[in-house]
Every structure is written in structure tokens, then in C-alpha cells.
Amino acid sequence: MSDSPLIRGVFFLLMLGWLPLPAAAQPYPYKPIRFVTSQPGGGTDYAARVVGNELSAALGQPVVVENRGGGVYSGEIVSKATPDGYTLLVTGTSFWVGPLFRKTPYDPLRDFAPVSLLVQSPNVLVVYPALPVKSVRDLIDLAKSKPGQLNYASASTGSSSHLAAELFKAMASVNLVRIAYKGTGQSLIDLMAGRVQLSFATSSGAEPHIKSGRLRAIAVTSARPSALFPGVPTVAEIVPGYVSGGGTAMLAPPHTPAAVMRRLSQETTAILHKASVKGQFLKRGAEVVASSPAELAEMMKEEAGRIEKLIKETGIETER
């Protein structure tokens, strides 16, 4: 049977490349890759495009960035995608802590395969310049002398600016009143106008206003001083153990083949270690991390657990 004309003909065509190999037999990648991410213009979208352009050159296939309005929708798309490495999620910290605040159709710790934590950005504690505060110690002292009289601006519930402030309130034992905004832009406008007194703002949003002198930076929320804000101390120097911030990660659908995950991890790490790529992110207020899949999985688990504990201890309202 092995010498039949049909078998010899098929073998001949395969040798000539006239018949395509089955998808499973073709080396990864053999077709375009899709990055599903959030709305255009934000830090997550920026990370997807920088890494996507570099990954396209490295793999020899187009990487198409597909913007979806909300993190929940983009997460649902990728959680249900074929686990073949051609549909990936590029998302932020709120993706894996968001389910603590509202119901989602997936479990971010169970229904995804981590590839890499791409970048991290500390929040920066900024105050209205007329506020008599030049350090974290000054702020704590003022807040304790005027409990419930200082307002902080934050973006949506579960955002990094919200969680950083609530963690500070709990660890520093101060009473600050939250003023919630739909986004960072309007919150900073009101802060610069003196309608609110402080904010744990995103680094990219606050940086130009710090440089212009319209806001005063008194601390960063990272565990160590940040290259993004030279000379600005950490909150942890006064409040030991305090750390908060945002990050952007790449995730794949569950059960993506191990060989594909290794290739994605290796190529992504190499891209992020390029000096030119690090420079692009620094200009946008982010520092490269380039974690392994295991490191990202552990970080997501640890952060979700820490925020869950914060919710229980402080009574932060959720929509669940």
C-alpha cells in the first residue's frame, strides 16, 4: 500500500511544497498574531504597539493590535480563544485585581497562561502646590490634625490611583476622603485647580505637570526609588512595607502549548532588554520588567491576595 500511486503522488507534492502541511505540523508562527488590548492611546495600548512591532520583526509575521473598549471584554475574548499562540492579551494590573470589585466571566489567575510582565509604573503622590506639605511625614501629620478634611482624587474603583490611596490610608492610619473621577485627566485638572488636595496619580499622567510646577511630587509608590522621578523618595521610607503601582502584562489562553509559550517568553524578554525599547518606555513613564511566566503568575497571585485583604480590612465598596 505504501507504494501506491496515490501515496507517491502526495509525497511528491509535499516535497515540492504544493500541498500545505497541517497547522499542527507547521512551525510557530506561520500566520499573523493578534494582540487584544484596551482602548487606543493609553499606556497598555502603547506597550502593545511597541512590543508588537518588535515581535513582528523577530518572528517574521505581522502582529495586529486589536483595541477593545474594556478590560473585561478583551479578557473574555482571549480566555475563549484557540490556545495556539495567535491570540494574546496585553493588559494592565486592574485586569487581575478587577474581579475583586466586579463580576467577570473568567478567573484571571486560572483562565490565562502568563507570558511576561512587560513594564511597571509606580504611582506618584502629588499635592496641590499651595498645600503646606513637602514630604510624606508632612502629609501624615496634616491629615491627622485634620481628619476627614483632605480629599484625594482617583480614577475608577480598582484603579491604581484608587488602590494606592486606600492602601496608604490603611497603613498610615489617616482619614482621607475619596473624590472619584472617570479618568486621570479630569482628576488632575481639579487637583491643579485646588479643588482636591492630593492624588496617587499615574506616573505618565502626572509627569508633565510636575515638570511644569503645577503639581508637587512628594513620593513614589514603588518599593525602591524610581528612575522616572530622580530624587523623589518612596512612601515606604516613612510607611514601612508600603508598595503599590501599575503594570502591563502579556497573557495567552489557557493550555497554550509549552513550546509556543517558551518562544513567546524568549522573544519578548529579548525585545524588552533592548536599550531602544527601554528608552521608549521611560519616555512614557514606565520601567521595563521582562519577567518570566512563573514570576508573572506569582506576582499576579500575590497582588490579588494583597488587594483582597485590603478590601476586607478597610471595607472598600465593590460591585460584587
Give me the secondary-structure topology.
Layout: H1 5-16, E1 33-37, H2 43-59, E2 63-67, H3 71-79, E3 87-92, H4 94-97, E4 113-121, E5 123-127, H5 136-145, E6 150-154, H6 160-172, E7 176-180, H7 184-192, E8 198-202, H8 203-212, E9 216-220, E10 246-252, H9 258-272, H10 275-283, E11 287-288, H11 293-314
Parallel strand pairs: 1-2, 1-3, 6-7, 6-8
Antiparallel strand pairs: 3-10, 4-10, 4-11, 5-8, 5-9
Helix pairs in contact: 2-9, 6-11
Please, could you describe this protein's structure?
With 320 residues, the protein is of the alpha/beta class. It has two domains: 7-121 and 247-311, Bordetella uptake gene, domain 1 (D-Maltodextrin-Binding Protein, domain 2, 3-Layer(aba) Sandwich); 123-244, Periplasmic binding protein-like II (D-Maltodextrin-Binding Protein, domain 2, 3-Layer(aba) Sandwich), CATH 3.40.190.10. The protein is built from eleven helices and eleven strands. Helix 2 (43-59) links the parallel strand 1 and strand 2. Helix 2 (43-59) packs across helix 9 (258-272).
Summary keywords:
320 residues; alpha/beta; D-Maltodextrin-Binding Protein, domain 2; 2 domains; six-stranded mixed beta sheet; 11 strands; elongated
